[in-house]
Amino acid sequence: MAVATANKTKKKKSSISDLYVWQGVNKKGDKVSGELRGASPTDVKVQLRSQGVTPSKVKKKQKSLFGASGGSVGAADIAIITRQIATMLSAGVPLVQSIEMIAKGHEKEAMQNLLNGILVELQAGRPFSECLKQHPKYFDDLYVDLVDAGEQSGALDTIYDRIATYKEKAEALKSKIKKAMFYPAAVLAVAFIVTSILLIFVVPQFQEIFEGFGAELPAFTMMVIHISDFMQSYWYVILAALILGGYAFKQAHAKYPSVRDKTDEIIVKLPIIGSILHKAAIARFARTLSTTFAAGVPLISALESAAGASGNAVYRRAIMSIQREVQTGMQMNVAMRMTGIFPDMVTQMVMIGEESGALDGMLAKIANIYEMEVDDAVDGLTALLEPLIMVVLGTLVGGLIIAMYLPIFNMGKIIN
């Protein structure tokens, strides 16, 4: 009996997490739509009626077979609507009206549904931070905490402007990091593809010619021919191994924190790329801490948010170590210096900020400096890799051509 009751409870808890898409009419007679969690369609209809919405259609949201569709809501979309909300609040437009206007004018149906769902909850009298908390996929704890701080202080417009700036800077930094990671990957991919094509299709043509020579081939040429034979015989095995290996790594990276942490540790040690990632992590740390601290969030909580937003396991552990030391009464600049990963300039600027009582402003300056350094480093990497691609491809293609023409050169010497 007890087992049956436990099973019922378990089923009930899992069903509550179901997400339903709804359409209806609000008190003003306007058509509205959105998403809402509930135990059943009936439960969702009851919730909507209690919020002043007459539902016309409620159905369970289906998950796409191939993941998110092109109309899904991304981090860049959240950054854009955050700036729109901040602008409207600064202009004196009420929050409910701001969200309603943005929802009606947005081109993505998924975003319209998201905003309409938040709008219905707002109209029912729930705090804005609580409404956002119902959508953790789009609004993380840091976002919600900052909105809550703005509501508590009565300065939501000011706080929202800071959130918008933070999101814009974060997305710009993310874009730069992706750009920095893309170029080395592109060089390797192009080099692999070109080399594979030459080994599988071009080298065999020369091999047929060499078989008629009846002479011993140079060691370099024989090595290339053996590699070509292997590629011709097992190209599908190599391709399958690369695909399966990539898929396995992606799954392990998503599932196991230890894999993510080890990957972060390896990446930050790479030449050039590692330096860019170090600067990006410092920029994220400083930007997050500046935004949260300026919004009135206590330093201990702000450090926890900064650790989560650092984007790298090495810096996340270091920031959590700083948090523990600060809790014991140690100055933050001293705790930062003890980690051994923050540059002296950063710790000195933090020390000045602590002594002058303007830590948030000093952290914002640090973030600006390192965001500019990341930008310059990525531009420099782009300029460096353009000739590097030519050198790598030239070396590979040139090496294969030399290997194929060596027997011909040797034959010419014998004839002479």
Automatic annotation (TrEMBL):
Pfam families found in the cross-reference section: T2SSF
Stretches assigned to the Type II secretion system protein GspF domain: 82-204, 285-407
Keywords assigned: Cell inner membrane, Cell membrane, Membrane, Transmembrane, Transmembrane helix, Transport
Primary site of residence: membrane
Gene Ontology BP terms: protein secretion by the type II secretion system
Matching InterPro entries: GspF/PilC, T2SS_GspF/T4SS_PilC_CS, T2SS_GspF_dom, T2SS_GspF_sf
Membrane-spanning ranges: 182-203, 233-249, 388-408
Family assignment from sequence similarity: Belongs to the GSP F family.
Protein's name in the database: Type II secretion system F family protein
Recorded topology in the membrane: Multi-pass membrane protein
CC per GO annotation: plasma membrane
